[in-house]
Amino acid sequence: MTDARNRRLAALADLLRRHVLTRQDELVAALREAGHEVTQATVSRDLDQLGAVKIRRGGETRYALSEQLDAVPAGEMRLRRLFAEWVRAIEPAASLVVLKTPPGSAHLVGVALDAAALEAVAGTISGDDTLFVACRSVTEAEELARSWQAWLGT
Protein backbone atom coordinates (compact mmCIF):
# COMPACT_ATOMS: atom_id res chain seq x y z
CA MET A 1 0.00 0.00 0.00
CA THR A 2 1.13 3.49 -0.70
CA ASP A 3 1.73 6.05 2.01
CA ALA A 4 -1.12 8.21 0.64
CA ARG A 5 -3.50 5.24 0.77
CA ASN A 6 -2.45 4.40 4.33
CA ARG A 7 -3.10 8.01 5.38
CA ARG A 8 -6.49 7.96 3.63
CA LEU A 9 -7.48 4.68 5.33
CA ALA A 10 -6.39 6.06 8.71
CA ALA A 11 -8.42 9.24 8.10
CA LEU A 12 -11.47 7.21 7.08
CA ALA A 13 -11.20 4.99 10.17
CA ASP A 14 -10.91 8.10 12.37
CA LEU A 15 -14.01 9.61 10.72
CA LEU A 16 -15.99 6.42 11.34
CA ARG A 17 -14.96 6.36 15.00
CA ARG A 18 -15.76 10.01 15.69
CA HIS A 19 -18.78 10.82 13.51
CA VAL A 20 -22.14 9.36 12.54
CA LEU A 21 -21.81 8.97 8.77
CA THR A 22 -24.66 7.24 7.00
CA ARG A 23 -23.88 7.52 3.29
CA GLN A 24 -20.81 7.11 1.11
CA ASP A 25 -21.24 10.61 -0.36
CA GLU A 26 -20.90 11.98 3.20
CA LEU A 27 -17.67 10.03 3.57
CA VAL A 28 -16.38 11.36 0.22
CA ALA A 29 -17.13 14.94 1.31
CA ALA A 30 -15.51 14.46 4.74
CA LEU A 31 -12.38 12.91 3.24
CA ARG A 32 -12.11 15.68 0.64
CA GLU A 33 -12.45 18.25 3.42
CA ALA A 34 -9.56 16.49 5.16
CA GLY A 35 -7.44 16.84 2.00
CA HIS A 36 -7.95 13.43 0.36
CA GLU A 37 -9.15 13.47 -3.27
CA VAL A 38 -11.42 10.42 -3.49
CA THR A 39 -14.35 9.08 -5.47
CA GLN A 40 -17.31 7.08 -4.22
CA ALA A 41 -15.74 3.93 -5.74
CA THR A 42 -12.53 4.53 -3.78
CA VAL A 43 -14.47 5.02 -0.55
CA SER A 44 -16.41 1.83 -1.22
CA ARG A 45 -13.17 -0.15 -1.66
CA ASP A 46 -11.66 1.50 1.43
CA LEU A 47 -14.71 0.62 3.55
CA ASP A 48 -14.34 -2.99 2.42
CA GLN A 49 -10.59 -2.92 3.19
CA LEU A 50 -11.31 -1.64 6.71
CA GLY A 51 -14.08 -4.21 7.27
CA ALA A 52 -16.61 -1.42 7.90
CA VAL A 53 -20.29 -2.36 7.93
CA LYS A 54 -23.57 -0.52 8.21
CA ILE A 55 -25.20 -0.86 11.61
CA ARG A 56 -28.36 0.44 13.20
CA ARG A 57 -28.09 2.03 16.64
CA GLY A 58 -30.56 4.28 18.35
CA GLY A 59 -32.85 4.25 15.34
CA GLU A 60 -30.22 5.44 12.87
CA THR A 61 -28.14 3.57 10.33
CA ARG A 62 -24.42 4.37 10.13
CA TYR A 63 -21.07 2.98 9.11
CA ALA A 64 -18.99 1.34 11.84
CA LEU A 65 -15.72 -0.52 12.17
CA SER A 66 -15.67 -4.09 13.49
CA GLU A 67 -13.91 -2.84 16.65
CA GLN A 68 -17.01 -0.73 17.36
CA LEU A 69 -19.20 -3.83 17.10
CA ASP A 70 -17.03 -5.69 19.61
CA ALA A 71 -17.76 -3.00 22.20
CA VAL A 72 -21.36 -4.25 22.37
CA PRO A 73 -21.73 -7.43 24.45
CA ALA A 74 -22.70 -10.43 22.33
CA GLY A 75 -25.58 -12.17 24.06
CA GLU A 76 -28.94 -13.57 23.16
CA MET A 77 -30.75 -10.26 23.61
CA ARG A 78 -28.34 -8.57 21.22
CA LEU A 79 -28.85 -11.34 18.69
CA ARG A 80 -32.62 -11.08 19.07
CA ARG A 81 -32.49 -7.32 18.42
CA LEU A 82 -30.25 -7.80 15.39
CA PHE A 83 -32.49 -10.52 14.02
CA ALA A 84 -35.60 -8.39 14.58
CA GLU A 85 -34.04 -5.47 12.68
CA TRP A 86 -32.06 -7.20 9.97
CA VAL A 87 -33.19 -10.79 9.31
CA ARG A 88 -36.09 -11.17 6.89
CA ALA A 89 -36.23 -14.98 6.40
CA ILE A 90 -34.72 -18.08 7.99
CA GLU A 91 -34.57 -21.49 6.34
CA PRO A 92 -32.76 -24.69 7.30
CA ALA A 93 -30.89 -26.42 4.44
CA ALA A 94 -29.24 -29.66 5.52
CA SER A 95 -26.58 -28.67 8.11
CA LEU A 96 -26.89 -24.98 7.15
CA VAL A 97 -29.27 -22.26 8.22
CA VAL A 98 -29.82 -19.69 5.48
CA LEU A 99 -30.63 -16.16 6.65
CA LYS A 100 -31.93 -13.49 4.27
CA THR A 101 -31.34 -9.81 5.10
CA PRO A 102 -31.79 -6.49 3.33
CA PRO A 103 -28.96 -5.73 0.85
CA GLY A 104 -25.67 -4.98 2.58
CA SER A 105 -26.72 -6.35 5.97
CA ALA A 106 -25.68 -10.02 5.99
CA HIS A 107 -22.16 -9.21 7.23
CA LEU A 108 -23.50 -7.39 10.29
CA VAL A 109 -25.52 -10.43 11.37
CA GLY A 110 -22.60 -12.76 10.58
CA VAL A 111 -20.18 -10.76 12.75
CA ALA A 112 -22.65 -10.89 15.65
CA LEU A 113 -23.16 -14.64 15.27
CA ASP A 114 -19.41 -15.23 15.14
CA ALA A 115 -18.93 -13.11 18.28
CA ALA A 116 -21.67 -15.02 20.09
CA ALA A 117 -19.65 -18.25 19.69
CA LEU A 118 -22.73 -20.48 19.70
CA GLU A 119 -21.90 -24.14 20.34
CA ALA A 120 -23.97 -25.38 17.36
CA VAL A 121 -22.36 -22.95 14.90
CA ALA A 122 -19.15 -24.03 13.16
CA GLY A 123 -18.90 -20.80 11.18
CA THR A 124 -20.63 -18.30 8.92
CA ILE A 125 -20.27 -17.08 5.34
CA SER A 126 -21.78 -13.69 4.53
CA GLY A 127 -22.74 -12.34 1.16
CA ASP A 128 -24.57 -9.10 0.49
CA ASP A 129 -28.07 -10.15 1.56
CA THR A 130 -27.61 -13.84 2.40
CA LEU A 131 -25.82 -15.49 5.29
CA PHE A 132 -24.98 -19.19 5.51
CA VAL A 133 -24.64 -20.47 9.06
CA ALA A 134 -22.79 -23.79 9.09
CA CYS A 135 -23.94 -26.02 11.93
CA ARG A 136 -22.24 -29.10 13.28
CA SER A 137 -25.22 -31.31 12.40
CA VAL A 138 -28.52 -31.34 10.53
CA THR A 139 -30.37 -31.59 13.86
CA GLU A 140 -28.63 -28.52 15.26
CA ALA A 141 -29.39 -26.56 12.07
CA GLU A 142 -33.07 -27.45 12.31
CA GLU A 143 -33.19 -26.53 16.02
CA LEU A 144 -31.43 -23.20 15.47
CA ALA A 145 -33.69 -22.36 12.55
CA ARG A 146 -36.79 -23.11 14.66
CA SER A 147 -35.63 -21.02 17.62
CA TRP A 148 -34.57 -18.11 15.39
CA GLN A 149 -37.86 -18.26 13.49
CA ALA A 150 -39.62 -17.98 16.86
CA TRP A 151 -37.64 -14.80 17.54
CA LEU A 152 -39.14 -13.35 14.36
CA GLY A 153 -42.59 -14.74 15.05
CA THR A 154 -42.56 -16.80 11.83
Q: Domains counted in the coordinates: how many?
A: 2
At the third CATH level, what is the topology name of the largest domain? Gyrase A, domain 2
Principal-axes geometry comes out as elongated
- Total strands: the figure is 6
List keywords for this structure.
four-stranded antiparallel β-sheet; 6 strands; 154 residues; elongated; single chain; 2 domains; two-stranded antiparallel ribbon; Arc Repressor Mutant, subunit A; alpha+beta; Gyrase A, domain 2
Structure, explained:
By secondary structure, the protein is of the alpha+beta class. Helix content is 51%, strand content 21%. The protein contains seven helices and six strands. It has helices at 3-18, 24-33, 40-50, 66-70, 76-86, 106-116, 138-152, and strands at residues 53-57, 60-64, 89-93, 96-100, 121-126, 130-135. It has a four-stranded antiparallel sheet, with helices on one face. A two-stranded antiparallel sheet has the order 1-2. Helix 5 (76-86) runs antiparallel to helix 6. It starts with a helix and ends with a helix.
